[in-house]
Specification:
six-stranded mixed beta sheet; 1 helix; about 15% helix
């Protein structure tokens, strides 16, 4: 995760990157659980899950997480896009969530 002046940038090994402008973020939620979904396109390994996913709650969304995280961050944009993020551990995911909050306030 890289924080620029205008956007949160996520670089995923063997997949690529995504940029989420802070101005487009309409909501951020920390969940103490994994977000289920079916991969439609992208990377699926025993280390990382990244790409286009689908579930009943969100419909289509972009996932950029470690494999089977115990906590996740749901980022919603004003355009209706949803990103699901995580770091390696629940503690690291909590710190990532807090850092995202500092860029939104």
């Amino acid at each position: 995760y890289r924080f620029s002046d205008t956007a949160l940038n996520v670089d995923v090994s063997y997949y690529g990157s995504a940029s989420i402008p802070y101005a487009d973020i309409s909501g951020v939620e920390l969940r103490r659980e994994n977000v289920d979904g079916v991969r439609q396109w992208g990377l699926g390994s025993f280390r990382l899950l990244a790409g286009s996913f689908h579930n009943a709650e969100f419909g289509d969304y972009t996932r950029l997480t470690y494999y089977n995280p115990q906590s996740t961050i749901v980022v919603r944009t004003s355009e209706g896009k949803i990103f699901v993020l995580s770091d390696k551990t629940p503690q690291d995911t909590q710190m990532l969530y807090e850092k995202i909050q500092t860029y939104l306030n």
